[in-house]
Specification:
Helix content is 38%, strand content 18%.
């Protein structure tokens, strides 16, 4: 199974007074820049079978931009992505259509932890820039014994367009 891990794009600062973390939206610049990165990803990869996203606003908005670039499918919220719960994420992957690309849109440090787990990193992690992506081959949809196929910082994905 191929899984594309995507960190949400640049959002409103977490120190914004009166704004709860789960209500932080993408900035206009973050949305524009990620739209270009998403277009680059869509040129490189097949249309995903599923797009699963953390329900936090900034991730859901990132997933919408990405799904639009690919021409679908509609993003589906997965609470486990908000908290980086590996078991919940793996359970969602097990019911995914076989042979399809599955996109997971989430947050740091959860995504770098999943990537490290998949590659047998033993606690080492590779930090994702906002809007960055990693393409993995995962046997049986489990984050262990995986293979990294591509690691794309947003600047590289934007350059593909």
């Amino acid at each position: 199974m191929r899984v594309l891990l995507v960190r949400h794009a640049t959002a409103v600062d977490r120190a914004t007074p009166g704004l709860a973390d789960d209500a932080r939206s993408l900035t206009p610049r973050g949305r524009r820049r990620f739209a270009r990165a998403a277009a680059g990803l869509a040129r490189l990869l097949p249309k995903p079978g599923r797009v699963l996203t953390s329900p936090l606003l900034r991730a859901a908005q990132t997933a919408e931009v990405l799904a639009r670039a690919f021409g679908g499918p509609k993003p589906q919220p997965l609470e486990a992505l908000a908290r980086g719960e590996r078991r919940g994420i793996e359970a969602a992957l097990r019911v995914a259509p076989p042979g399809f690309l599955i996109v997971l849109v989430g947050h740091e440090p959860h995504l770098s932890g999943l990537l490290a787990d998949a590659l047998g990193g033993g606690g080492e992690s590779v930090p994702f820039k906002k809007g960055g992506a990693a393409l993995l081959e995962l046997p049986d949809g489990r984050f262990e014994g995986g293979r990294l196929l591509a690691f794309l910082p947003p600047r590289v994905a934007r350059a593909i367009v």
